[in-house]
Write a structure and sequence with these properties.
Arc Repressor Mutant, subunit A, homodimer, DNA-binding, flat, mainly alpha, Tetracycline Repressor, domain 2, 2 domains, 12 helices
DNA sequence: CGGCCCGGGTGTACGTAGTACACTCGATGA
DNA sequence: TCATCGAGTGTACTACGTACACCCGGGCCG
């Protein structure tokens, strides 16, 4: 009876269950709370049991990236390379925003799992299908950089988490004075981006807009190069 | 005597000595070997002694970033905004390449130390001095993203360290076949970038060139926007 | 049908990490 | 001369990743 109860309750572990549990845990508790021990606990299992399904924590993280990659939409066909790339990047960005841990994990890793390679391969394919030379495609992929994953190092970002205690107004005023003296340029930019909300710290900056601004800037540059048949010195020499 | 010997040998610790020792250790042994204990050992001191000079490891890392920022050249004046930005970014890149740990540390942190804010502030200043509107400056900073630090997520990078054992030629051939089937596009790009060196894995890809390619693409885009007096919808509405 | 094997789950244990807290001890200033 | 203070110490705690030996139940072969 108890045995059967246990048997029914305990769905046997497998790699997928481990990975998706890890993703859920990281989504909900933050990547810094994702330890092998905590994950095992979440799965109602002893820590070492995990090692029957992933070699170590690194492989766990790689596996999580794979889960994420699987969520990205496949490239649309017959819409022109520019649209295809744009849509795909925005899809990647949506996945990324669903999983706040992803940026850090992608950054910390040069994950070349099959899923990641597959993503990159089909990504390259969009440019080639659009008539880009192999040479230009190469440079263009580099220019895109981490934006192909739907993120850029968001330097102005506030995402440091935790309730930001709003200081008293007079303190804020003092901070503002201080900012104005030390970092006048930052202040100007921040104020312009905001101006309706009085707080200095947070900013009403539309990440999505910024992201698309930069993305389109790059895509337009790619297009210009492509149209004028640009080729790197190197590729020209080798012909 | 021994006391004096000790006294002479033991230069008193201070924040700067701790930070520069941390930078040296990270440079030489890798960021993963930088532990409070190891750093203390390197300084001939007990681990807890460090906590008299930095609050915790996070603050140590922030301090290391400050050291790095201090190495970046100040902006040149009277050379036009484009040149000024370009030179500064390339200087940042040089610092970054001197300290391999820097990319990871910058990425993992939204460090807003005074030194970092100062860097960003004077960076913004270059655009404003070039006549950019505050609005455009804002977007342009976002578009630059991590490139303002001299790096981009180098996705094709091999920097995973450790001697890459070259497999036997027949194995390589098999791998190549496999690649050709699974990731034909990657293969084409990789082969084009290489073609003189037979190995599939490593690539003779000129990082510096790629970096400048992308940087110039962005700068050219900025210039075009600037010349045509571009303004975001939002800024226009608010006038 | 009985023994065996094999693979997923267990228990214990080790080494390393960050750091809290109470301490010592020498220089310094009253 | 003596109290104070702050840099450096010692000990100890918790949490981590994971090596290694183990158990035990189900499937297979004889």
């Amino acid at each position: 009876m108890t045995q059967q109860a246990e048997a029914t309750r305990r769905v046997p572990l497998n790699r997928d269950r481990v990975l998706t549990a890890a993703v859920v845990l990281a989504d909900e508790a933050g990547i810094e709370s994702l330890s092998m021990r905590r994950l095992a606990q979440e799965l109602g299992v002893v820590p070492m049991a995990l090692y029957k399904h992933v070699a170590n924590k690194e492989e766990l993280l790689d596996g999580m990236v794979d889960v994420l990659v699987a969520e990205i939409d496949p490239p649309v066909s017959d819409a022109g390379w520019k649209n295809a790339v744009r849509l795909r990047v925005l899809s990647a960005r949506r996945s990324l925003l669903r999983h706040p841990w992803a940026r850090q994990v992608l950054e910390s890793r040069s994950a070349r799992t099959p899923a990641v390679l597959g993503y990159m391969d089909s990504f390259i394919g969009m440019f080639l299908a659009g008539g880009f030379s192999v040479d230009l495609t190469h440079h263009v992929m580099h220019a895109l950089g981490s934006r192909m994953w739907g993120f850029t190092q968001e330097l102005f970002d506030d995402s440091a988490g935790a309730a930001p205690v709003e200081p008293a107004p007079e303190i804020q005023a003092a901070m503002l004075q201080e900012m104005a003296k030390r970092y006048p340029n930052i202040l100007r930019v921040a104020m312009a981006a905001e101006h309706d909300d009085g707080s200095v710290v947070s900013q009403g900056c539309d990440d999505q807009f910024e992201f698309e601004f930069a993305l389109d800037l790059l895509l337009d540059g790619f297009e210009r190069f492509h149209q004028q048949g640009w080729t790197s010195e190197r590729a020209r020499l080798e012909r």
